[in-house]
Amino acid sequence: MIGMQPDMEVVGEAGNGEEAVAIVSSVQPDLVLMDIQMPGRSGIEATRDIMKMNPETKIILLTTFDIQEYVADGIRAGAIGYLLKDADTKVLLDGIRSVHQGAALYQSTTAAKAIAQTLKQEGFLYPEKETAEFEPLTEKEREVLQLLAYGKKNTEIADALFISEGTVKTHVHRILAKLGVEDRTQAVVMAIRRRIVK
CA–CA separation, 169 vs 7, rounded Å? Predict the structure, then answer.
């Protein structure tokens, strides 16, 4: 199906995590569809190894398991997408194109809950871990970003911080601009990876 697309080419297939790492090392593809459950090295472990070796490769986890821990582990390993194997063909192909262009893709129904639950279990902000690659966030922007990571909507953030919904939108706009991302999901993914939130 993928090979039939005019803008896509399948350059390799692997039966386990070790083969996946070896193929990426040899072929250096733009994007990898990574199964999570494989013999030997898991897809999460392979993703982590690939990102250390070739960080420019974009990885979508493609799995039958709609499990919160997998989403969070996948993000930390470096995956930029998470799709279920029963996803509609159009959703899969559009997702591949979207991730290739730099967007984050977490369309699993448990993705937001997974990120939120993991963050709640592990704690809040770690400002000392923030890199200097972007303009520093204000204290209020950090609070808004943390609530975004918890999966909160603008109205819920407004209620939690005792500010207007319009003010929340302004903070979100500034957060996206400072982090250099296009949407809330990308902001949360970057925040987790750079330990602005944990």
Answer: 36
Contact in structure between 43 and 34 (CB atoms under 8 Å): yes
Which range among 12-16, 149-153, 156-160 shows the weakest confidence by mean pLDDT? 149-153
d(CA 111, CA 116): 9
Structure-token match 């591949």, residue found = 96
Q: How far, in Å, CA of 171 to CA of 84, rounded?
A: 32
Task: Return the top range by mean pLDDT from 6-15, 52-61, 152-161.
Answer: 6-15
Residue with tokens 């996206």, as numbered in its chain: 176
Binned at pLDDT 50, 70 and 90, residue 93 comes out as: very high
166 phi/psi in degrees, rounded to 5: -60, -40
Sheet strand arrangement including 31-34: 31-34, 58-63, 81-84, 105-106
Burial class (CB in 10 A: 0-12, 13-18, 19+), 165: middle
pTM of the model: 0.62
